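Priority: medium. Attachment 1 of 2:
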């Protein structure tokens, strides 16, 4: 296991609403090692993106609030930093790529200027030096004719090109950790493959850690070293990627993997997990997955702990009791 770069412990992030308190992230713990890619997976509404926003301290308050826990990055608890100190971390040491670049890029500035501004802010470079580095970053993410594209506005670029611009901006200050939140969602399949290949190459070339947030297990299989599975604001399984796909321990993980199309398999309809992710305002008692689980039994009325299994694996299921390694 690589040395921990990021360690999240018992993180709880809530949102106060007129209907009550929504527990979007409820006691989440996991680590990301130096140079490691960790996939954070689960259906929409499981708390993945709120976890990412919590790491960056970008949860809007109100209505959101990080209630408790710790987010330790290189020995510093980010929750204890002032906003001024946190601004030095964002973009410089930890960067994030959001899933919809058109809403993340400013429509009234050119793409090149937005990259240049990030470089100038964090690296204290002059206009000429920061512009040259911005062009180099566009070249690094394989945007053709980067000198010309520097002057293009977001609406003049395709979705795949805009995502490359966001990646260029995120990597411009050589962060130690990149958070990629659904980086290939809403892109054509061929463009998705190009973006994933680009992220893999950049990660290896820069010895950078990546927290990959996605619901696409095919992307996880291609990119991740280790996988953390979330459900209803909680971690339900953690495993090295090969072991997870070979023998998932939690019924929820099994359901996700079974729903993937398989080469050579002919089915009229893919298997699916019945029901939906519970409302964070009304999380069920006991096991949070029990009302959708085909393997539930009486003990599921009590929430299980995360059982430590063999080979660095953990699973939050009573079926794993007695299998601790």
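Attachment 2 of 2:
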């Amino acid at each position: 296991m690589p040395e921990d770069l990021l360690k999240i412990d018992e993180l709880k992030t809530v949102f106060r609403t007129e209907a009550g308190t929504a527990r979007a992230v409820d006691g989440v713990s996991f680590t990301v090692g130096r140079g490691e890619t960790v996939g954070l997976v689960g259906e929409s509404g499981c708390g993945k993106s709120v976890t990412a926003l919590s790491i960056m301290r970008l949860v809007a308050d109100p209505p959101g609030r990080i209630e408790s826990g710790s987010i330790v990055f290189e020995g510093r608890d980010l929750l204890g930093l002032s906003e001024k100190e946190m601004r030095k971390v964002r973009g410089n040491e930890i960067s994030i790529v959001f899933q919809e670049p058109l809403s993340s890029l400013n429509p009234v500035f050119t793409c090149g200027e937005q990259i240049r501004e990030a470089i100038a802010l964090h690296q204290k470079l002059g206009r000429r030096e920061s512009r040259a580095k911005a062009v180099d970053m566009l070249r690094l993410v394989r945007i053709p004719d980067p000198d010309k594209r520097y002057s293009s506005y977001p609406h003049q670029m395709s979705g795949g090109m805009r995502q490359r611009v966001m990646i260029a901006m995120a990597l411009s200050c050589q962060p130690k950790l990149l958070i990629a939140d659904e980086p290939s969602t809403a892109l054509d399949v061929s463009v998705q493959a190009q973006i994933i290949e680009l992220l893999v190459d950049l990660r290896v070339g820069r010895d950078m850690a990546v927290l990959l947030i996605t619901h696409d297990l095919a992307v996880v299989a291609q990119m991740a070293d280790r996988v953390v599975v979330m459900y209803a604001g909680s971690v339900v399984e953690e495993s090295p990627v090969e072991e997870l796909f070979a023998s998932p321990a939690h019924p929820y993980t099994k359901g996700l993997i079974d729903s993937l199309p398989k080469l050579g398999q002919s089915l009229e309809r893919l298997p699916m997990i019945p029901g939906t992710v519970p409302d964070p305002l009304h999380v069920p008692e006991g096991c949070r997955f029990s009302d959708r689980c085909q393997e539930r039994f009486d003990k599921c009325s009590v929430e299980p702990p995360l059982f430590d299994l063999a080979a660095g694996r953990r699973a939050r299921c009573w079926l794993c009791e007695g299998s601790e390694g």
